[in-house]
């Protein structure tokens, strides 16, 4: 009995510390998270959003506002404001809306610094229940999420997997670390106890900036489909690269086909920048690359070759 009593204070202390973190995060974020009621055609959809700037910009998921020009944003303090959709990017599943009101913006973190097992807190409006908070841990990092909504498809790399309970309506809500910094945008419920969030990092911050400024994101396009592949040690030593993207398909008429890229080539660099996985190439396919001559480094039959290529703009 004495041994049992000795354990209880430690358990209570741990529980108090956990509760304290979650409560603090909730208190800081709840005023910044809105319940979106989205007008779409004859019906109405729903989701979540969080304040990005004090002058009314909020971040949400692209699929929450897809096909809609606006709706209503309701905050936990009872305030409701009409919002307009500023822009959405289905290929990253990120969207930006704006209300004509002063907001309490969240502090953004860096998902690239997350570690598996780290505590995270999700704030959103699952099933229409406004201001809901759940907590869990980062279950895995580096997951992939296929997006596109029927158009060009893209793999969002380094998606965060968490066991914090997520349900329909959580999409667009905030995923925060223990210091109340938003590190992800909740986007998908992949199964019981398995939720996914688009990371907040340097890449996605550029996407959000483009949406706020232009209402859309321009991307360069090569026209290949492929998968990451490690090079055999002997080849890696010879060409100076350990891995690349093996080309599975080359789109007819694409810049890659015009450059002479073939199936089974392995792309290892673009303009001298290393390409080891899909995310590396996607990060280089920015607006500045559209129409600009570049040099594609490929490994073919064990040798490194350089092919001139001019990326075009991804449309559709």
Model description:
The chain is an alpha+beta fold. It has 6 helices and 21 strands. The protein has a 6-stranded antiparallel beta barrel with strand order 1-2-3-6-5-4. Strands 8-9-10-13-12-11 form a 6-stranded antiparallel beta barrel. Strands 15, 16, 17, 18, 19 and 20 form a 6-stranded antiparallel beta sheet that branches. The protein is globular.
Rg measurement, Å: 22 Å
Helix content: 10-25%
Average pLDDT taken over every residue = 88
Strand composition percent: 35-45%
Low-pLDDT runs: none
Order of helices and strands: HEEEHEEEEEEEEEEHEEHEHEEHEEE
Main beta sheet strand tally, sense and closure:
6 strands, antiparallel, barrel
Task: Please give the number of β-strands.
Answer: 21
N→C terminal distance: 69 Å
Morphology: globular
Largest sheet, order of strands side by side? 1-2-3-6-5-4
Briefly note the structural class of the backbone: alpha+beta
Number of helices: 6
Give the key terms.
20% helix, 6 helices, 316 residues, 6-stranded antiparallel barrel, alpha+beta
Q: Layout of SSEs?
A:
Blueprint: H1 2-29, E1 33-40, E2 43-51, E3 57-60, H2 62-65, E4 70-74, E5 80-89, E6 94-99, E7 107-108, E8 119-124, E9 132-147, E10 154-162, E11 174-176, E12 181-191, E13 194-199, H3 202-214, E14 220-221, E15 224-230, H4 233-239, E16 243-250, H5 255-259, E17 266-270, E18 273-274, H6 278-284, E19 294-300, E20 303-309, E21 312-313
Parallel strand pairs: 7-12
Antiparallel strand pairs: 1-2, 1-4, 2-3, 3-6, 4-5, 5-6, 8-9, 8-11, 9-10, 10-13, 11-12, 12-13, 14-21, 15-16, 16-17, 17-18, 17-19, 19-20
């Amino acid at each position: 009995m004495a041994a049992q009593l000795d354990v209880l204070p430690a358990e209570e202390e741990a529980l108090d510390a956990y509760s304290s973190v979650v409560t603090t995060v909730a208190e800081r974020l709840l005023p910044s998270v809105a319940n979106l009621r989205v007008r779409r055609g004859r019906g109405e959809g729903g989701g979540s959003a969080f304040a990005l700037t004090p002058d009314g910009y909020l971040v949400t998921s692209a699929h929450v506002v897809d096909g809609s020009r606006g709706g209503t944003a309701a905050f936990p303090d009872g305030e409701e404001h009409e919002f307009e959709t500023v822009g959405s990017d289905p290929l990253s599943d990120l969207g930006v809306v704006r209300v004509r009101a002063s907001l309490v913006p969240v502090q953004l973190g860096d998902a690239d610094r997350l570690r598996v097992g780290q505590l995270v807190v999700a704030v959103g409006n699952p099933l229409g229940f406004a201001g809901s908070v759940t907590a869990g841990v980062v279950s895995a990092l580096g997951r992939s999420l296929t997006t596109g909504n029927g158009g060009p498809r893209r793999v969002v790399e380094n998606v965060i997997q968490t066991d914090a309970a997520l349900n329909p309506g959580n999409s667009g809500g905030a995923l925060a670390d223990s210091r109340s910094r938003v590190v992800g945008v909740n986007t998908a419920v992949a199964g019981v106890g398995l939720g996914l969030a688009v990371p907040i990092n340097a890449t996605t911050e550029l996407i959000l900036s483009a949406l706020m400024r232009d209402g859309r994101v321009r991307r360069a396009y090569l026209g290949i489909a492929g998968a990451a592949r490690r090079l055999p040690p002997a080849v890696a030593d010879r060409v100076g690269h350990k891995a690349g993207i093996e080309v599975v398909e080359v789109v007819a008429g694409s810049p890659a086909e015009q450059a002479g890229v073939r199936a089974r080539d392995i792309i290892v660099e673009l303009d001298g920048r290393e390409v080891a996985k899909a995310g590396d190439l996607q990060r280089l396919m920015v607006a500045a690359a559209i129409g600009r001559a570049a040099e594609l480094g490929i490994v073919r039959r064990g040798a490194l070759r350089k092919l001139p290529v001019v990326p075009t703009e991804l449309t559709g």
